[in-house]
């Protein structure tokens, strides 16, 4: 894409009311626009990043047998009464609205009730089980305060998968598979080294649930990490009993602030009991289906990446989720830049060409702020020196390489 | 995909309150689930179709220079006051909700105001123009009645593109390009032959707007078609003056019911005046930017396709948007079917394999209902006859062909 065609512009300052580093940088670089606290528009650059994260999630969910679908945001009160979660005193972050005739509706903050109810239409026999529907869909949560930028939205995308199994054994098998799939997602998004499988409160149907917590000061959680075993304990269940149960010792655990980028949860039959989501078992008797739920917030991943991979000059995207792979900057060499731009695109390289009529200093500053992994400068000086100037966003030094070397490097 | 892994099942009957043929068939075949009137969940089969339609739209919008982004559903009252569209007496289909602190919010039914306001952050100079952001995003409309199935939702996806141009000439050039892009979309989705560029009311800034109307009894509009010129007039502007203006005669026009699958609209400076969305022109003076808006409803396209391409046995999808290309039905030949299933997938053919332990009659009936374009039956009988039985969903006769012939046919 030519940068001159991008309507967004970099900004010196983020809005004064924006306190989160991730949103400050993303706003300044033209990735997101703040509609209100907790609600961000994804501008073309930001949408490219978010789509890449969503695509990685999609691939990993499909690989373990997930089937994508899409449920509605508008929710019928009747669907939420059986579990008592319609009540604002029980769930304090509903957005509610109503039809013209006064019928109350809610905007889904999650979809356990909806999918448990929906499955009563389709599930009859144990022969159909297990299955794993998921969606990547908008959720709405009426947060009293929303100060974490795109890491905690009032409106945000969520990948939520639900598992339906005939018994605990079948459930546990899939639950373990999702652990690996989640690990793959966070590795591919570049935050694997900072992300820990974290033991958290399990609710009424299992001892623990598991969170994927990424170490960052921007996180809202506190966890205790054991580096050797690559696991952690959430502060909420950090007791002598749990530490012992996991075969750990207090001395081996390091306290850290972290952001929950994913979670997996055994639901047992809590929702299927409430909605009578049953199947006929091998003995011909009705039984409640065993459920699990598995969430990842793509924008929270994106915000966490920005918190982790940025410096005083801007963002430094990991390759796999960068909006473009190469940032081509031309300085008084439009013709040569155009040819290189065409050649890179021909080779399938995603390239943003800064073709604007702007000062070199502005172009360099914008490039650092936007944070594309590979920066190429082409100018009469680099051409005379034998090619282009190449610099990685994460490295301080630039050097001259030939166009052939460049193509090998980035293709 | 193996059909045994699909949690959905076909149903003999649609819900009694479902009056629209498109939704009746889509519910019965397991494409959608009705959450409430006007709100449908897209099940895995339905989501595949909708994603294909969205991808066709995306490709055509990108081809004319569109840049994808994503705005929020939650809307600030302040954004809608300048055009007076916050008022429920002016816009009668808002869903409204509120923050914990009582701040009123709306759920976007369209995004003209939002994007006009957003652009005040980015637009400064004529040098940036033109540009064409678009999104494929959820819209919410509090329809008093919602009886057209997925063709008129209270919650639905909309592709909405907005053009920003420095003057009418630049605007008109893009406006004409979108006409062709829209024609491409509807041709690729299989409804081109039934879809007419239709002259409709233009509002205050242009003589006409243009709708793309597809002939179907399920439509809510009435249009007058001139087949020779391949255009139509919406009933709302069907006057002697307009007929004459378009160089037509009453005798050449045929009345028909139609569904509006897309529209394109010149907005002039209505929204940019209201939001002071200005740029500095070549003379250094501030000027309101000229806007256009361009909508397509992917689910309305999907519903219209079902209305047009279905018979007493079920749906018959056009190839480009079918959930799968081939429906493979095995009857007592699991091993041979598995090999063929693998081979087809290897060749990149999207195939749904009915591997269920079900009666042949049930499998055939389900196949007709689901409506995948190519049906293959493999059984001891077909193997003895030299291959597989092949039938198109749209043709009455089946015949035996070899596996090699099949691969040539569908690859």
Task: Please give a handful of descriptors for the protein shown.
alpha+beta; BirA Bifunctional Protein, domain 2; 2 domains; Rossmann fold; 411 residues; five-stranded mixed beta sheet; homodimer; five-stranded mixed beta barrel
The structural domain count of chain A equals: 2
Content of β-strand of chain A? 25-35%
Instruction: Please summarize the sheet with the most strands of chain A.
Output: 5 strands, mixed, barrel
Helix content of chain A: 25-40%
Low-pLDDT parts of chain A are none
Describe, in plain words, how this protein is organized in 3D.
- Two copies of one chain form a homodimer.
- With 411 residues, the first copy, chain A, is α+β, with helices and mostly antiparallel strands.
- Chain A folds into two domains: 3-311, BirA Bifunctional Protein, domain 2, CATH 3.30.930.10; 324-410, 3-Layer(aba) Sandwich (Rossmann fold), CATH 3.40.50.800.
- Chain A is built from twelve helices and 23 strands.
- The first copy, chain A, has helices at residues 21-28, 44-63, 77-80, 112-119, 168-188, 240-245, 270-275, 298-308, 334-346, 360-370, 380-384, 403-410, and strands at 32-36, 39-42, 66-68, 74-76, 95-98, 104-107, 132-140, 155-165, 195-201, 208-215, 221-226, 231-234, 254-268, 278-280, 286-288, 290-296, 310-311, 314-315, 326-330, 351-354, 374-378, 388-392, 398-401.
- In chain A, the strands form six sheets. A five-stranded mixed beta barrel of chain A has the order 9-10-13-11-12. Chain A has a five-stranded mixed β-sheet with strand order 20-19-21-22-23, with helices on both faces. In chain A, strands 4-6-5 form a three-stranded antiparallel β-sheet.
- In chain A, strand 14 and strand 15 (286-288) form a beta hairpin.
- The radius of gyration of chain A is 24 Å and the shape is elongated.
- The model of chain A has no long low-confidence stretch (mean pLDDT 97).
- The interface between A and B is large, with 57 and 57 residues.
């Amino acid at each position: 894409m030519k940068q001159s065609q991008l309507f967004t512009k970099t900004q010196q300052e983020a809005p004064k009311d924006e306190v989160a580093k991730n949103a400050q940088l993303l706003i300044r670089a033209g990735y997101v626009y703040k509609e209100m606290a907790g609600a961000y528009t994804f501008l073309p650059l930001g949408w490219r990043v978010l789509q890449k994260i969503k695509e990685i999630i999609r691939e990993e969910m499909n690989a373990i047998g997930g089937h994508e679908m899409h449920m509605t945001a508008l929710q019928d009160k009747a669907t939420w009464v059986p579990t008592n979660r319609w009540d604002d005193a029980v769930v304090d972050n509903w957005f509610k609205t109503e039809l013209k005739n006064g019928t109350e509706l809610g905007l889904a903050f999650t979809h356990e009730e909806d999918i448990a109810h929906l499955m009563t239409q389709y599930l009859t026999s144990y022969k159909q089980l297990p299955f794993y529907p998921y969606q990547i869909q908008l959720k709405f949560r009426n947060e009293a305060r929303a100060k974490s930028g795109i890491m905690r939205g009032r409106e945000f995308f969520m990948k939520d998968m639900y598992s339906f199994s005939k018994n605990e054994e079948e459930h546990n098998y899939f639950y373990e598979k999702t652990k690996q799939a989640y690990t793959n997602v966070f590795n591919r998004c570049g935050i694997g080294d900072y992300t820990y499988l974290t033991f958290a409160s399990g609710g009424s149907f299992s001892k623990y649930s598991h969170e994927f917590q990424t170490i960052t000061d921007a996180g809202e959680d506190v966890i205790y990490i054991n580096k050797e075993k690559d696991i952690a304990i959430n502060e909420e269940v950090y007791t002598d009993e749990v530490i012992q149960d996991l075969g750990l010792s207090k001395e081996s655990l390091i306290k850290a602030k972290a952001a929950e980028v994913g979670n997996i949860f055994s639901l047992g039959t809590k929702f299927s009991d409430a909605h009578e989501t049953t199947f006929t078992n091998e003995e011909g008797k009705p039984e409640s289906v065993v459920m699990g739920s598995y969430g990842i917030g793509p924008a929270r991943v994106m915000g966490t990446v920005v918190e982790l991979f940025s410096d005083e000059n801007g963002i430094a995207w990991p390759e796999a989720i960068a909006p473009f792979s190469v940032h081509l900057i031309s300085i008084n060499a439009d013709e040569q830049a155009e040819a290189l731009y065409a050649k890179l695109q021909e080779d399938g390289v995603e390239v943003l060409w800064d073709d604007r009529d702007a000062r070199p200093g502005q172009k360099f500053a914008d490039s650092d702020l936007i944070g594309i992994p590979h920066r190429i400068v082409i100018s009469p000086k680099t051409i005379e020196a034998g090619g282009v100037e190449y610099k990685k966003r994460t490295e301080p030094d630039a050097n001259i390489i030939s166009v052939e070397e460049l193509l090998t490097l980035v293709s």
